[in-house]
Amino acid sequence: MKVYKIAGLNIGxxxxxxxxxxxxxxxxxxxxxxxTVAVTEEQVRREQEVSQNTSFEYxxxxxxxxxxxxxxxxxxxxxxxxxxxxxxGAAYAFAAKSG
Length: 99
Fold this sequence. Notes:
Blueprint: E1 2-6, E2 9-14, H1 17-22, E3 35-38, H2 41-50, H3 56-71, E4 83-87, E5 90-94
Parallel strand pairs: 2-3
Antiparallel strand pairs: 1-2, 4-5
């Protein structure tokens, strides 16, 4: 397990090297996680069925991300994937369906 600083929280992630590499920039050392996420092989295989022609490792990464997003509201946080612009001191986020 490795710990990553995401949304101001220390999140423990149990995953493959692929996921660890994707999250490397957020790694937190010598810290206790606020919570930990891991996914089962069955969850990853189900994701693979939906995301045809996608590697097991990438699907694991997607499942881990989803698990984090599910827990964050318990800490009054959320992750939003969006393009953001600033105009006149205000930020505007544009989100859309992936793809």
